[in-house]
Amino acid sequence: MAQITLDNLAHSYLPYPSRDDDWALKQLDHVWNDGEAYALLGASGCGKSTLLNIISGLLVPTRGRILFGDQDVTRQDTVERNIAQVFQFPVVYDTMSVRDNLAFPLRNRGMDPAYIAARVQKVAHMIGMEATLGRKARGLTADAKQKISLGRGIVREDVNAILFDEPLTVIDPHMKWELRTQLKALHNEFGHTMIYVTHDQTEALTFADKVVVMHDGRVVQLGTPEELFDTPEHTFVGYFIGSPGMNLLDADISGNTAHCTGHAIPLNGHYKAQNGKIQIGIRPEFVSLVSGQEGLPVTIRRIEDVGRHQILRAEFAGQPINAILPEGMAVPSDANRLKFDPMRVNVYVDDWRVKPLHSVATSQKEAV
Fold this sequence. Notes:
Belongs to the ABC transporter superfamily. This protein is an alpha+beta fold. It has ten helices and 22 strands.
């Protein structure tokens, strides 16, 4: 197991990068703790797999260093780094049995046969393939082959890290949930450093201790699932995490008030004057439908019943805005305004969250 440090790391697939857009990975400076489970989350093309391949040794970065503990491994190959990697599509030996596929990494390192047999049996149980241990891999479904590949990646206990590059793409939905649960149990039991690449927020949030959200080659936030939900540090995090994602409205900020097209929205803090593209963000869970004169006047477009709750789709000054309503809640005919919880409103300048000078709650406490 190892602490992983990204030191001034950046990468371009071009020989002479000169513009910001030439870099597949912009500068990264992060320390990932030994023994934690991380998820690299982001849309296709954001740099997730590039970063994973640099960590694994399949790719040498254009600039910077990567350290495992105190050791600089930037130019070491995968074997020297002592990591295991599971790829998006199955990588198995078709002529071998399932048992031999799972045992191969251990036999290749001269492990004791009794240990190999016990470990293979345990991993086969974890991936639900005990009944097929004697079968050849050839002829098995893609789903089954990927489970073999996954099992071979986790069969070793002595690795510095286990890397997963969207490993559940070809797995059926029910098995995805089971395997995620098993991977989490494996991590809790053995404490491997794990890095899991995915574009699926559910996979990321249920698997990881901390989620690394990437956008346009940058890490825009590294935090726990709770931190990503409560305080997205970048508008992309607010948009990408949650269903539906965070509401974003253009605004002007004055003290503890946001002004959206002439309507005042209270904030839980005093902000200094801001320049640039200014927006406020609030999750649909903290938006209420009200009648009267409070809140923003909206045009309700539709209400979607998704079982656990209802999603109200509305529009304000040409901007879409969503609210989560309780399941079964009747919508009054005269309700046409949305009210925000001031404690849950974030302020963004040029897509990055800015903090208030001090909160309203703090001001009130000091006044007392």
